[in-house]
Specification:
By secondary structure, the protein is an alpha/beta fold. It has a single domain, classed as Alpha-Beta Barrel (TIM Barrel), CATH 3.20.20.140. About 45% of the residues lie in helices and about 15% in strands. The chain contains 11 helices and 8 strands. It has an 8-stranded parallel beta sheet with strand order 1-2-3-4-5-6-7-8, sandwiched between helices. The radius of gyration is 19 Å and the shape is globular. Bound molecules: zinc ion (ZN). The site of zinc ion has 5 residues, from loops.
Length: about 300
Amino acid sequence: MNFYKNAIVAVLLAVASWSVSAQDHQPKLIDTMVHYNGEPGVLQTMLEKMDKVDGLAILCVTKKGLPEARQFIQQHPNRFIGFGDVNLDDRDILQQVDRLHRDGFLGLGEISSTKRNYDDRAYWPIYERAQEYHMILHFHTGVVLREDPEQAQDVSFDRMRASRLDLIARRFPRLIIIGAHLGNPDYSEAAEIARWDPNLYFDISGSTLIKMKDNYAYFKSVFWWTGVKSLHTPASDASAFEKLVFASDVFNGDVAEFDNELARYHQLLDACAVPQHAQEMIFSGTMWKILQDQKAALAHSEKDHTTLKR
Ligand SMILES: [Zn+2]
């Protein structure tokens, strides 16, 4: 009886967190990756920024930031969505994912610096669980910073290659996956797998936008298939660049870097003559549709759940 009661309470709590997390309009900008580690003042700073640009930010929240972020996200559902910044190698990772889902967190990320390759079968139960919960996964891809060179690390770029996402996207076809940084520097591999995986997107945040600033037009050769009608590429009327979504990748509420990142994104897309409509999709439309689909899927599975419990 107690178990039954607890289960009902858990379901009601979950419904409550989803319903308060609803957005009432499509924002102009959706930032798919803002980091939050519990630093004081950061949430308020980001709220002011999001109000100014009519933005919705996905907060990638570490364990330390969870208590404050959970409440703040519920208070500002038009401005924030929460992802759990989890470590895939934690022993209790599945319980963490359950808890995050129960608390209304809609995804996991930024997943990074794993002990195994991203597509290792040891992680499949986590992806399976995330898929069951309709969560979105945001993976770091490509080269990664080395914070303290004095300290021994069990970290390797090779485990986090963009190409490691291909198997995950195919094996878990209902998962929506975002790869951060377009696999820096393996841009072509990243774009090629995104071309064939409809559930895979990339952001191009990070050092790429600085490194390539005099050569942004290069990305026309990476996203080459716009308008191509051929058996060799999936049929689509969308610009190939629509495999990109926006991410500022800012830490510590660094709004100056947020502005820089946004400006660089615009410069790159303009240099590649990406049409206005496609740019609107990259800055908001694509993620908005993903979030609406996710909302519908969550409402649907919740209905099944409640019916089962009766
Ligand atoms: Zn990253």
